[in-house]
């Protein structure tokens, strides 16, 4: 365990330590004993336990603290807070280490050393300056790593958006779906031309939204709900009273965001995997909570012959939330209900 803890320091931290520690060690020896440090072996042997080992321990403590702060306050928006905490910790550790070294040498009277404030000031300036220089290098490396990570996340999100769009389009243009739509439209034209016109209008809205939304990772709740109303209207025209869709969205969440086409995927899954009949109506509830979640719930009445399921769609949504570093996505299933909770994302770019 101890070996793992010491090995957890990054390569950059080890390289920086090996490059700067000998310089600081030699400089402190020279400040303590001036020219005597150049030719006295005792000075160097004495400084191993009094400077070298404490310095190594302080550096290791700083590495662990810095790593903890980056994990706890690693977001870009938390940079100022993280840097303030790191600077305060560095000031205390580097300054405390330097004062400790001179105090020990003075109290012990090693090789005749006596405390001189000018020496302490010079040593503090040197150790703090060197420490802050190295810390700046660490921070630059961290920011660059986060930048590369964010670029990878964006690329992955774009790939997920394209895949989900492809899957959604594929499900809507497959012959079975089109046959049902055209069959329904054909019946309505003969029986109720006005309703046929409304059906065709909703169908065009569905396809228009899919085609225009294929490059977006996020969509506003308002846009998603407008789309899902049209999609559910197509389903209700086909299934009639066998399908009930209840949508209740708080207006204050209309400009929040969720991953694009999430509602269509969840509603499609509900219809695909459950019995939809007048004797066993499928009820889909879509609503928001005060906790900032959008809930999609349906009563569970599994088909006897299960439709093929890869759960890729649900994993797709989960992955998007992970890449966006948003927690709260949940899938809850019991004997009577299947529920998915989508955390709502506040996105200032959607506020006009």
Describe the structure.
Helix content is 65%, strand content 11%. The chain is α+β, with helices and mostly antiparallel strands and 352 residues long. The chain has two domains: 150 residues, no CATH class; 177 residues, Heat Shock Protein 90.
Q: In CATH's first tier, which class of the largest domain applies?
A: Alpha Beta
Strand order of the largest sheet: 2-4-5-7-6
Structurally, the number of domains stands at 2
**Helical stretch count?**
10
CATH architecture of the largest domain: 2-Layer Sandwich
Q: Find the count of extended strands (DSSP E, 2+ residues).
A: 7
Radius of gyration: 33 Å
Overall pLDDT: 80
Q: What is the rounded distance between the termini?
A: 53 Å
- pLDDT below 50 for ≥5 consecutive residues: which ranges? 1-8
How much beta, percentage-wise?
5-15%
Structural class: alpha+beta
Instruction: Assign the CATH topology of the largest domain.
Output: Heat Shock Protein 90
Task: Name the overall outline.
Answer: rod-shaped
Query: Largest sheet, described in full?
Result: 5 strands, mixed
H and E string = HHHHHHHEHEEHEEHEE
């Amino acid at each position: 365990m101890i070996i793992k803890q010491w090995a957890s320091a990054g390569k950059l931290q080890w390289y920086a330590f090996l490059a700067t520690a000998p310089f600081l060690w030699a400089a402190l020896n020279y400040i303590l004993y001036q020219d005597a440090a150049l030719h006295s072996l005792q000075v160097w042997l004495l400084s191993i336990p009094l400077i070298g080992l404490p310095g190594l321990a302080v550096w290791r403590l700083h590495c662990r603290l810095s790593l903890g702060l980056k994990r706890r306050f690693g977001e870009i928006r938390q940079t100022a807070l993280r840097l303030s905490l790191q600077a305060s910790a560095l000031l205390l550790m580097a300054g405390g280490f330097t004062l400790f070294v001179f105090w020990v040498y003075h109290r012990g009277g090693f090789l005749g050393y006596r405390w001189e404030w000018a020496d302490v000031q010079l040593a503090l300036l040197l150790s703090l300056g060197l420490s802050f220089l190295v810390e700046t290098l660490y921070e630059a490396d961290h920011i660059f790593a986060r930048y590369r990570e964010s670029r990878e996340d964006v690329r992955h999100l774009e790939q997920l958006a394209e895949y989900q769009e492809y899957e959604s389009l594929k499900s809507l243009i497959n012959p079975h779906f089109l046959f049902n739509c055209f069959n329904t439209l054909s019946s309505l034209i003969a029986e109720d031309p006005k309703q046929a016109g409304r059906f065709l209008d909703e169908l065009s809205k569905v396809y228009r939204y899919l085609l225009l939304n294929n490059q977006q990772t996020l969509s506003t709740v308002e846009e998603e709900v407008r789309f899902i109303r049209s999609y559910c209207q197509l389903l209700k025209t086909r299934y009639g009273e066998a399908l009930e869709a209840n949508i209740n969205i708080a207006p204050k969440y209309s400009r929040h965001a969720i991953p694009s086409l999430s509602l269509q995927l969840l509603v499609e899954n509900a219809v695909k995997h459950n019995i939809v009949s007048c004797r066993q109506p499928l009820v889909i509830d879509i609503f928001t909570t005060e906790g900032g979640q959008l809930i999609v719930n349906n009563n569970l009445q599994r088909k006897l012959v299960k439709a093929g399921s890869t759960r890729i769609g649900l994993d797709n949504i989960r992955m998007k939330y992970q890449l966006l570093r948003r927690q709260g996505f949940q899938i809850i299933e019991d004997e009577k209900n299947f529920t998915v909770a989508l955390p709502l994302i506040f996105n200032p770019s959607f506020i006009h």
